[in-house]
Amino acid sequence: MPLLNKIRATVRHPSGTAEPSAPAGRAVSAWPAARLALTAFFAVDGFLFAAWVVRIPDVRAQVHASHAALGLALLCVSAGAVATMPLVGRLCLRHGSRRITVLSLALLSGAVVLPSHTHSVPALGAVLLLFGAGYGAANVAMNSTAVELVAELRRPVMPSFHAGYSLGGLLGAAVGGLLAGQLTASWALACSGALGVLVTAGAGVVLLRGGRVAGTVRETPTERAVAGQLPRAGRLLVLLVGLTALCSSYGEGSLADWATLHLTDDVHAGAALAAFGYAVYAFAMTAGRLAGTWLSIRLGPARLMVAGGLTAGAGMLVAALTPSVWLVLAGFVLVGLGLANLFPLAIARAGEVGGPRGVATASTLGYAGMLIGPPVIGFLADAASLPLALTTVSAAGLGAAALAAVVHRAGRRHG
User: Fold this and answer.
1) What predicted TM-score, i.e. pTM, was given to this entire model?
2) What is the pLDDT of residues 316-368, one digit of tens each?
3) How many of the other CB atoms lie within 10 Å of CB of 68?
4) 3-state secondary structure 193-255
5) What is the pLDDT of residues 126-154, one digit of tens each?
6) Which CATH architecture has domain 30-229?
7) What class does CATH assign to 231-415?
8) Which of 352, 336, 356 lies closest to 302, judged by CA?
């Protein structure tokens, strides 16, 4: 079992050596300036994406797109993101994750303004390619920077960054909804882009000025990747945690598109209560991420991932198969709590092992799950039923738990 032994050593530390201990008597702040700045980047990333999403109906009317044409245009966001992610991993290695984070958010802040100025479907698709490129680049670069800060702080704080993203998304959706009747799409997206530029400028100065957190001596994942110290077993580990991210995002994408329809069509809930169902899920996910660091410290990241996958799997079975509205809502809460930390912790592990390239690989796999989830659910719903189709989300959660357990068992010998 030589390969398994290599994986075990890699799980403990990608270079196969023990972690160096922090210098005695030198306390490290749990919230250094760099962590606050990066959290602001995650929050504005979620805010900008939500600001665009709530204006999709206005832009659709402006370009006179059919449902099918709009669907093709929206795919350009995903195409731009997936095409960009591997390239950004290499750019982070060459130029530093922090610089690429700032540049990516600047690109995203400018691109979010463009859709409201298009007047044809091809033009919309072109600007959404650019928007997707900025969004994909930002996610790889931010997560690569987050992985390095996690290594420097020596605390599992990755979920707190993704909680910032979730909070930014909720704020963006709420503000966008409130201003929908007062501002045109052009003005709303222009204001969102301006906010993005301001946050990028302010937080960017802090992030770029901040060096390594005082009191840390640990070699960063980027330094290991540049030095070529990633063993072959480490690549397999990156693939495993990337598949975990795929399982998680499969559930996230599926719930985003099908939760409301399940409540209205299968459980016969009213429109308001059905809309509340997705909000319950989103708030549960945000709460889970806010508690993620605390839970990671007490349970360990691997055990938290296993527990999260099992919780999401059980919750989705309840939500998919019960005829009671309130039990469906309770199931959505469990799904949100369960999925909350799977993706952040998977990305953190991939980056710990493979640096920015590991983050890019896992992010690309994760984004693939977001892409394939909704259409797979739709196809299965047509072939059988929507409740039966939604049980695949439960299977994905259980698959994520199994993958996390494999990695945990491989590392237990050296744990």
Assistant:
1) 0.79
2) 999 999 999 999 999 999 999 999 999 999 988 888 888 888 888 888 888 88
3) 8
4) HHHHHHHHHHHHHHHHHCCCCCCCCCCCHHHHHHCCCCCHHHHHHHHHHHHHHHHHHHHHHHH
5) 999 999 999 999 999 999 999 889 888 88
6) Up-down Bundle (1.20)
7) mainly alpha
8) 352
